[in-house]
């Protein structure tokens, strides 16, 4: 696929010497959903701010739709919609008017049909004549998304878009993101909700201490770095773990009634067959078996702490 956002050797050093970005290279494909994960202070918002023209880079180059963000700022910015973390809305303005006004700021001709479609998609049409001051926090965030979409951007940055909204609203906003993707909008999403990235993203990028640790397709990442845990429920509890099982990395459950074994899903041999044979030879009887798959959150924590193998 074609890259619509290209980031090459991007660095940012703030006054005082803080190096927020350390040579970021990133190609974002047109029409994909890319989720950027990282702890607070990792550099996610700084990266987005530079691409959107809100912060000046110390070094490197960024293009959006082939337009250099420094030399051809206006053309690049017209392609971008941004929903920042902070709620910035005109409290005493009506919903529909603030969305229309934002479209006008980009020099776009009035298009009431488009505005209606955006508001309906975001479940804001019934609120169109209400002042933003009267809306809930979740609805205000939807207004910000509507404003970001008013000029029909090809690239949409969502910086923590579901922060502070309830589960129902979050799921509804996921539906909005899916509709945008179907229309060909490229979405870059930062989130603290790991399940959001797992559910929405085509690819996941992990940033920590200003460095891009990886960018990989979500499914491939789960397969490559995911691990499974096999829990063997015993018919009767035991007080000590047989040495043959301990050598395999098996641990004993807290109450002694289960055995826990973690293995690599990508390995050619999981060792489960030999493990079950050792359990029988140790004179232990099985009552049940169950497996659990590591989540994207487990992988993320491992990457940023350096514990993922």
Automatic annotation (TrEMBL):
Q: Does the keyword Protease apply?
A: no
The protein depicted here goes by the name ABC transporter ATP-binding protein
Which residue ranges does the record assign to the ABC transporter domain?
5-234
- Can you tell me which residues the record assigns to a coiled coil? none
Please verify whether the record's keywords include Translocase. Answer: no
Question: Could you tell me the keywords of this UniProt record?
Answer: ATP-binding, Nucleotide-binding, Transport
Identify the CDD domains for this entry.
Answer: ABC_DR_subfamily_A
* UniProt xrefs under SMART domains: AAA
Give this protein's Gene Ontology molecular function annotations.
ATP binding
Spell out the InterPro entries in the cross-references.
AAA+_ATPase, ABC_transporter-like_ATP-bd, ABC_transporter-like_CS, ABC_transporter_ATP-binding, P-loop_NTPase
